[in-house]
Structure formats: C-alpha cells, structure tokens
Specification:
By secondary structure, the chain is α+β, with helices and mostly antiparallel strands. The protein is 31% helix and 26% strand. A 7-stranded antiparallel β-sheet has the order 3-2-4-1-10-9-11. It binds adenosine monophosphate. Adenosine monophosphate binds next to helix 13.
C-alpha cells in the first residue's frame, strides 16, 4: 500500500525584502492546487520562522503575522489532502533542527518508495511526527555523512523515487529541485534583484515577477547571496510530465511544461468534436474547470457556447465529504442549471474528466429534471482507469468508474443519451512534445515499481 500523497503548490522567494509577503501572493494565486492547509517558512539569515495552519490562504495569514515574518528568503506550501488525512501535523513546510542548523522543506509530488524508505529509517531508530513522505527527506538529510547541505540534499535525492518538485530553505540559501522525470511543474522567475520559484506561473503574474524558465527534470538550482543561481544536474533528464496538469489541475492562465494551459484545453475540446461530430443545439461546460475545453469544442463545431450550468462559488468544503451520499448533495449545492435556456434543447455537456462518476451522474439528472431533451456527455480526456502514484489525488482503483465499467455501461449508469471520452491519441496530439508526458492514469504505464 502506498497512499502517502502530497498534491500541492510550492513557492520560493530569494533575495527580496519581505520575501514572505511575495510568497504569500504566490500561494494565493495557487490556491486551486491545495485548499486543506497552507504554510510559510522565512529566514532572516539567522533563524527560520514557520507559520502553518489548516484552511485557505486568505484565512490563515493576517497582517500582523506577516509583519513578524521578516527576511529575504521564504518558502511556502498549499496542501491538497485526501479526505480524512487533514491533520495539522501534515501541513508544510516541514521544519527541523539538525547538525548543520535549521531546515524547512516544501514538497509537491509523491515518492513511490516512501514506505520502504520510512521503514528503513524507523528500523534504524528514526521517529516520525507525521504521515508525510516529506519527513523522510528530513531524516535522510540529517543522517547523511556529507559535510555540505547541498551534498546532503543530493545524497537524499538519490534515495527517493517518484515525483517531486522540492524547495529547501536553510538560514542563508534556497534550493529548488525537480525529479528526473519532471512529473510536477516548477519554474523560475526574476523579481527585482531576486528570484521566485513556483509550481505554476500564475504565481509570478500576481507577484509581478518575470518568468525565466522551467527548472529541468533532474536539476537542482541553488540560490545564494552575492552569487548567480547555480545549476546542478543530479540525474539525466527523462521528461514524463503529468498530462493531467494540462487536462484539469493547473490554472488556465499558467504556462506549463512550455505551453499555455488554456490553449491545450481548447485543443482537447477541438479533438473531442473532431473525433465524434454530433448535432445539438448548444455546448455547455461543467464550470469552471471545463470552460476552455467547451470553448474549443464550440469553436470547432460552430455550435453555440452557453453557460447552461451555473456554479455557486461560495460553498466551502463539507466535513462529511468521505460519505458517498453527501458527495451527491455537494454537487447539487455547487452546480445549478438555467432552466429557461436548456428546456427542450439537445445539449452537449463538456467536462474535463470523469473520476468516480458522481459529478456527471448528478449533472445529467439535474439537466433532465430541468427539461433538457437530450444530454450528450463529452469528456475532454480518456477514461481514468488507473490511480495516480505521482501526486494527483485520485481514489483507489475500484472507486474509478472507468475501471469498473465500460463506456456504454457508464453511459447507462449516468442516464445520458450518449457518452464519449477523448482518445489517448487525441490527448497526445493536444500537447506539443507528446513523448514527454506521463499518461499513467489513462494507460497504466508507470515508470517506477508501484
Ligand atoms: P467525479 O465526480 O469523481 O467523476 O469527479 C469528476 C469531476 O471532478 C470533474 O468535473 C473534474 O473537473 C473534477 N476532478 C477531476 N480530477 C480531480 C481531482 N484530482 N481532484 C478534484 N477534482 C477533480
């Protein structure tokens, strides 16, 4: 069993006054990557201070708190937890004192060998305070026989496998590292005389930082006072970027793995139409995540784009989420159809993905109750039949509806008039470097022992 997962946002700031405030803006822009908990660690050159708590960025931090977080180096983290794992102990950055001083770590990704590494550390006497695989790194760094922190980090990275975009904060330096497959994004920007590192470029836009480049798979960049950022290639680059970042996870205004998320999503919508042209009265997105896909579908097909389903933006998380019955209620609270618009109409409903099938089932029934004549579900990604071990929060395989049912069975279960998933070939054609992507949730081809 490997269910230690971190699916999150990370941000780092170096060489800028009030670095924590810039990092805070980055976290604010990347709230979509994690709503469970948030944290910031800042160094003033002599000590590291950390604030973290459960909740949204706008709720956790206040001005007096930020005033106290003085210093020119900061890292931050938004945590996206699976239901039931939302302990404050699992919030990041993870901070520790060790023989070289102090360290804080922020991690986006998921180690595929986390349990083996943890077991070996425990057998060797280590004590853990959380269920996070990130804590493994603290121990590996603390135990390393190397003298310099950079060498200890590289030593630790040799021992972990899987997906990681990592930030390490010492009292005087910032280290940013990306796994050899570059599963999760991590980019660098210039801000004033300093630098910003973030999971997504939308963080740079809010902080008025200028995007420079992606950190390469297998690269670590070290930021140190009075020096240019230093790049160390610690492993051969073998890109396997997460295609689901483009499908669903990232913000559409981000520039991800070398291309615009928005443009890729429109392509997905275009191929969805081209693979199965169908006559209908209008195209409706499942808001908000599927709006770009539906625009692509509408522009390719010439069918009018309408906002036939309205999303309530003001609902918070329900604490009873793990219960299936409550999930259904949650969808209903969140999405509501415009009856006058859809009554008697043949609708193409575009969604980016089907995971458990809960959302789609409720949507079809809401639309039919509101008088839709036909509901044609179009999914802008292939069927998700395998769980992700690289940091996207997918449920266990038997909860994935496409694992349990074939497409026509799902159509019958949803009570839709038709259902069509995008093909894997079309998904690959929607991105520029099609060989550079991980499609394991669609094709089950993992790159590590799972
Ligand atoms: P489901 O109801 O379980 O089929 O979930 C599908 C819906 O959730 C789609 O509308 C997606 O936009 C969204 N979705 C897909 N993947 C995820 C994820 N990893 N976390 C949260 N929501 C997701």
């Amino acid at each position: 069993m490997r269910d230690l997962k971190e699916k999150c946002a990370v941000v780092g700031v170096f060489g800028v006054k009030s670095a924590a405030k810039i990092a805070y803006l980055g976290l604010y822009a990347m709230q979509h990557r994690g709503q469970e908990a948030t944290g910031l660690s800042v160094s003033d050159g002599e000590k590291i201070s950390t604030i973290k708590n459960r909740g949204l960025v706008s709720m956790v931090y206040d001005e007096p708190m930020m005033e106290k977080l003085d210093g020119e180096i900061a890292i931050g983290h938004n945590r996206y937890s699976t239901a039931g794992e939302d302990s404050i102990l699992d919030a990041q950055p993870v901070y520790a004192r060790y023989s070289l001083g102090e360290i804080a770590i922020a991690h986006n990704g998921n180690f595929t060998n986390a349990l083996e590494v943890r077991k070996a550390l425990i057998d060797d006497g280590a004590i853990f305070g959380s269920s996070m695989d990130t804590e493994n790194l603290i121990h590996l760094i603390a135990k390393s026989k190397e003298s310099l922190l950079r060498l200890r980090i590289l030593d630790a990275l040799q021992q972990v496998e899987g997906a990681y975009s990592l930030l390490f904060l010492s009292r005087t330096k910032l280290f940013a590292a990306r796994d050899p497959n570059g599963f999760r994004p991590l980019s660098i920007a210039k801000i004033g005389d300093g630098y910003m590192v973030a999971s997504e470029t939308c963080a740079f836009d809010l902080a008025s930082a200028t995007f420079e480049r992606d950190i390469e798979p297998g690269e670590m960049v070290i930021f140190e006072n009075g020096k240019k950022p230093e790049s160390i290639r610690f492993a051969k680059s073998d890109p396997k970027h997460c295609i689901f970042e483009h499908v669903y996870f990232a913000r559409p205004d981000s520039f991800l793995f070398g291309e615009s998320v928005y443009a890729v999503r429109k392509e997905l919508g275009r191929f969805l139409w081209e693979e199965d042209p169908i006559d209908a009265d209008m195209v409706i997105p499942v808001p908000d995540s599927s709006i770009p896909h539906a625009i692509g579908y509408s522009q390719a097909s010439g069918l009018p784009f309408e906002l036939g389903i309205i999303r309530n933006h003001y609902i918070g998380r329900t604490f009873i989420e793990p219960l299936q019955e409550i999930r259904d209620l949650k969808v209903k609270k969140k999405l509501s159809p415009i009856k006058e618009l859809i009554h008697g109409k043949r609708l193409v409903i575009v969604d980016d993905s089907i995971v458990r099938g809960t959302t789609s089932k409720k949507i079809v029934s809401l639309l039919k109750e509101a008088g839709a004549k036909e509901v044609h579900m179009r999914i802008a990604s292939p069927a998700i039949t395998f769980p992700c071990y690289y940091g996207i929060d997918t449920p266990h395989q038997n909860e994935l509806i496409s694992h349990r049912m074939a497409s026509d069975e799902i159509r019958a279960y949803l009570k839709a008039d038709s259902l069509r998933f995008l093909s894997i070939e079309a998904l690959k054609k929607s991105v520029q470097n099609r060989g550079n992507f991980c499609l394991s949730c669609f094709d089950g081809r993992y790159f590590h022992n799972i």
